[in-house]
User: Which sequence fits this backbone?
């Protein structure tokens, strides 16, 4: 169904290399990112009150390596749905080969697009050779490119990014059930996938309509949101609540650790947010269709939720969110912190 080798070649071909800098400057950036990622653990644990095992080293990668890492995770996560899609299909070997290459090129193209925008990532579903739960990736060329465009202090910006990603690592390693809970939601979403001809035809028609409206600036619907049945929409609402919490919490931490670690944090945040809003029309269209606009809302809404809860019940009261899955906010509660406080701290 998906030719992963084609996906890797496509992603590698179109991901690009990033800004042109000297070899010595590149080596210095890589070394500093490793150092700052290692140093981020202490401030994050002190600020959040979450205690995790000592992490393994962060992997500082280029765009190609980032796409390869994510394709490996995608392949693992997609195996069940690919099996479901191919079960009972009568296409001949030629048809399957052609279709799998097309799908592989599409997946590779998507990863190539993303590879120029991602600064860092914690992958909770990767199992290391020594049993490490997850791995932290920092995409060096993108970090250097953005710090140059923003005109901010390189060391401060790199430390700021490391704080965000280290917070994600702590969320998944200090909260023992988080990884399994998120994986179970994804597994249930895949299990609920409707691959019947009626669902596929409906998706194709709705997708065409969504693209036309987005081009005209009349819609804000991602393609992924169209390919969902009622059960999946309920699961997406749960995932949205969790991801908004995690992203918003990481944003609060990266800003809240503050001037002692990142002296120019206020300037960085202001310019970074301005850059998010100043993308071109084509970039905004792609973001809408790929669901990245919704991702940006997760940062904003999640951060407002965290600050709203801490204002009422303090850090200790907020940290009740990590006690058990039942304490996670719903998508509705993310927009209404008072409702979460009433439910959990009643």
Assistant:
């Amino acid at each position: 169904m998906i030719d992963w080798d084609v996906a890797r070649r496509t992603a590698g071909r179109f991901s690009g290399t990033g800004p042109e800098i000297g070899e010595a400057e590149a080596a210095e950036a890589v070394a500093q990112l490793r150092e700052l990622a290692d140093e981020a653990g202490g401030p994050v644990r002190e600020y959040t009150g979450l205690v995790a095992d000592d992490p393994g080293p962060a992997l500082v990668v280029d765009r190609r390596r980032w796409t390869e890492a994510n394709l490996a995770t995608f392949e693992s996560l997609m195996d069940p749905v690919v099996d479901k899609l191919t079960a009972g299909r009568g296409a001949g070997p030629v048809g399957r080969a052609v279709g799998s290459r097309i799908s592989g090129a599409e997946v590779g193209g998507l990863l190539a697009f993303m590879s120029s925008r991602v600064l860092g990532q914690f992958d909770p579903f990767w199992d290391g050779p020594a049993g490490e739960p997850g791995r932290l990736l920092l995409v060096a060329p993108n970090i250097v490119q953005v710090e140059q465009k923003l005109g901010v202090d390189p060391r401060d910006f790199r430390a700021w990014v490391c704080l965000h990603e280290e917070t994600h690592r702590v969320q998944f390693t200090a909260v023992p059930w988080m990884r399994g809970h998120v994986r179970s939601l994804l597994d249930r979403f895949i299990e609920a996938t409707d691959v019947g001809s009626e669902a596929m035809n409906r998706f194709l028609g709705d997708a065409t309509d969504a693209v036309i409206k987005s081009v005209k600036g009349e819609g804000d619907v991602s393609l992924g949101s169209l390919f969902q049945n009622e059960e999946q929409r309920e699961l997406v609402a749960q995932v949205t609540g969790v991801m908004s919490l995690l992203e918003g919490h990481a944003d609060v931490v990266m800003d809240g650790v503050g001037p002692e670690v990142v002296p120019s944090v206020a300037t960085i945040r202001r310019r970074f947010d301005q850059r998010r809003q100043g993308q071109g029309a084509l970039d905004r269209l792609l973001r809408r269709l790929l669901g990245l606009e919704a991702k940006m809302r997760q940062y904003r809404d999640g951060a407002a939720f965290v600050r709203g809860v801490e204002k009422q019940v303090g850090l200790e009261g907020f940290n009740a969110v990590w006690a058990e899955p039942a304490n996670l906010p719903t998508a509705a509660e993310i927009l209404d912190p008072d409702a979460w406080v009433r439910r959990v701290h009643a």
Summary: Residues 237 and 331 are 6 Å apart (CA to CA). The domain at 4-194+229-332 is CATH 1.20.150.30 (Lysin). The first strand starts at residue 59 and ends at 61. Residues 199-218 have pLDDT under 50 and may be disordered.
